[in-house]
Amino acid sequence: MCMSAYTLAGVWPFRRQPTSLISVSDPRLVELFAAGPPNYSGESVTEGTAMGLSGVYRAGSIISGTIASLPLRTLATNRAGQRERARSFLDDPNPGIQTPFEWAETILWHLLLHSDCFLVHVYNGAGQLVGLNPVHPLAVAVEWDDDRPGGKLFKVRLDHGEARAGQREFDGATLTHIMGPSLDGLRGVSLIRLARNSFGTGIAGERSAATTFRNGAQFGALVTPEDDLDPDEAKTISRDLNAAMTGTENAGSIRVINRKLKLSPWTMSHEDAQWLQSRAFSIEEIGRWFGVPPHLLGQSEKSTSWGTGIEEQNRGLARHTLMPWTTRMEQRLTRLLPRTRVAEFDYSGYLQPSPEDEINLLIKQVDAGLLTLNEARRIRNLPPVAGGDVPRGVAAPPPEVAA
């Protein structure tokens, strides 16, 4: 298939060249030098370190994976004013490179972490829009430009080898920008920057846990010798004690030090420091940032774990967390379709009730005349029956008189 100037090979950011060098346009390098103001914990909060937290990865996977599993429909309005399925490029939005699930999951992660999603338009030889190519948000600079379609100028700098290296410019006619929460309408407010203190605290907790287990003996101590020591002797004793008592290989062992020393523990216990409680709170805090209930992140102590409690929480997740993200995507993607068509995520499978509830609901709808018997049977994948196409309460048409 012949491509126009905006081809897949020219803008795809995930293709790697066989080189060990890092380009100045690499998103990872941009992230390193644009990590934002320091946080209280002193830990570096980047895309990679944030996703290293189990709560962040799980919350982001729940939102991105759930939305990506929803069918993205293109609906057209017919002459009767009813919506019906129609075909469009959104059935396979990044052909040959990503599956529809992978495509939706990628742009959701961009939105969740950076509150920005940039999709470069891909056209065929006839100038028809045939795909949307995700570009990493850290590789895009956005400026206001009233002379450009959409009023914005997008400067994209990606490394595709020496032949295609450099910066490329796009506008609203060649790139679709989906934003998360924004204060100026130019770019979304990055969650990594907003939550850097919460994420930094979680990263510090993980580092503290790793250091504690790495050192084996889970305490610090103050050693007081009974004899006077010069500085060199003190350093030697400290080195010998650390070699004998710390490290996982020394955990639980008995060591002998040929010195008269008084050992005074100099640390708080995990219970006093509320170490485990702080790690649990970190997961709850991450859940609040993403809008994911605690039970989906493995925190079931404060919520019911059976019956209608979880079912209602799942519906709440769809209503309060998933739908705001899908609505953003639907409205932007609809602008790329003809006027009579709209893009819409189908939640029917996600919100489908239990089989017993669904059957009872279908029976009530058939009795009320909202569905015919055959329509209800079709929903349950059952064959039609004779006379089942007439709604209840409506007189059947008279039989045709044979000629």
Keywords:
403 residues, alpha+beta, three-stranded antiparallel beta sheet, 38% helix, elongated, disordered N terminus
Can you give a write-up of this model?
This protein is of the alpha+beta class and 403 residues long. Helices cover 38% and strands 15% of the residues. It is built from 13 helices and 11 strands. The strands form 4 sheets. Strands 2-1-11 form a 3-stranded antiparallel beta sheet. Helix 7 runs antiparallel to helix 10. The longest helix has 27 residues, at 308-334. It starts with 7 loop residues before the first helix and ends in a 24-residue tail after the last helix.
Largest sheet: 3 strands, antiparallel
Total helical segments: 13
Helix content: 25-40%
Multimerization state:
single chain
Which H/E pattern describes the elements?
HHHHEEHEEEEEEHHEHEHHHEHH
End-to-end distance: 57 Å
Could you list the spans in which at least 5 consecutive residues all have pLDDT below 50? 1-25
